[in-house]
Design brief:
68% of the residues lie in helices and 3% in strands.
Length: 488
Amino acid sequence: MGTTGKRGRGRAGDAYRRVIGLTGPLLPCVSFLGRLPTATIQFGSVLLVARTDGSLATAGLTGGALALGQVVCGPLVGRLADRHGQRTVVLAFSLANAVAVAALVAGALARLPAAALAPLGAAAGATVPLVGPLARARLVALARRSGASEATVGAALSFESTLDELSFVLGPALVGLAAVLAHPACAMAAAAALVATCGTAFALHPTARATAPAHRAPGRPVAPAEERPAPDAPARVPDPPDASAHARVRAGGAGRGAVPPMRAPVEAGAADALLPAPGNPGALRVRPPMPRCVPGLLAALALQGAMFGACQAGITAFTGRLGQADQAGLVYAAMGVMSAAAGLATAAVPERVGAGTRWRLATGAALVLSLPLLATRDLSGLYAVVTVLGVAYAPHLITVFGLLERAVPPSRLAETMGVAASALVGGQALAVAVTGRLAESHGPAAAFAAASTAAGLAFVLALAVRPTTYAGEPGNAPHARVADTRPR
């Protein structure tokens, strides 16, 4: 058992070293700090307006408008990044978001009415630069272009999901700390400064070239893409020995941050590239369609968000009934820390356990581990149950993001990651609104029952949806969907 554990930790360590080798150490730091404001402004806007206006209704309206702006415009940000490249889009939205957040802070301090604060909140949400989803798309593009194995791609997704978890644990904690020690406006102002500086640094990092749009002259042949394995199939392409993309690039004289040459144009992860239509080299085809499995995967993410939102509402109501409402943030943090740890450990799972199997295991675990919430009676029991439940959260996200990455055309990867982020945020926001009322009327158990119901529906989806993989074919065929025919 000890030898197996050491071997698993060794696999995970090697995988993460290869992931860092693709980017260098600076990009993960910048992307983490760049996504921290997204986790800060949602909670911070509610605290800020509640402090300055004194009305929880106005605070909720402003926070809801912010979430709605992000849900509606998130896919647009991803699509623009696919079409124009991440550098231009992230730079523009980072600066716009800094201005919008600063305007919201100024409006709240000026005690503007709800009719003015709601549009300011919507603008702050609509301009979120989606550093997290775009960092995920960028890292996957770098891994694909370097010829990395499926294990390295999976480790990249695990790494990015862990950074997301840490940001969503740390962000609200920092806002709460600022509200106690100073004023929520301080946290919001810091978020504006952080998104302006670190969002800009993320946009200008040399690896942004990995997702630059590919432009081809009409009639130019399209190089075939490497075929991707089915979701349940083990990786067939080994990692180059000793090999980070940076090591190979530096050997050729390039500096840190340089991007290795593309092996196949459609694997760039860049966007709405102009592809010659089959049989007519002069005609151009854009925006290949999404596979039919994608809505099911997005629905799974929305249900995951709904589960987390329902747990939030239930935890808040539970701690409030015990007269220890200040413990709610610590309970969330315990779940987030455990989820982040489980996400990092996902890279140690053997490759023979395919993505489809992992999806079913993660959703089944979420369902089973959520049921004890219904019988929880004291704070120590709540800590224990919620902490263990965190084990299922990040692995589910990592697996579904991996299935989406394999399913969608590379030219629509950033758009898909944006839609996925919107599905998560939308599911969580809707669940918080609905189950918050349930918890007030019928107690925390009603919210926890809604969380278990969402987990059960996600498990049903995992059993019913049959993910496909995207693969380019020789010649001018823009894409093909390959069924996962591995026995279930």
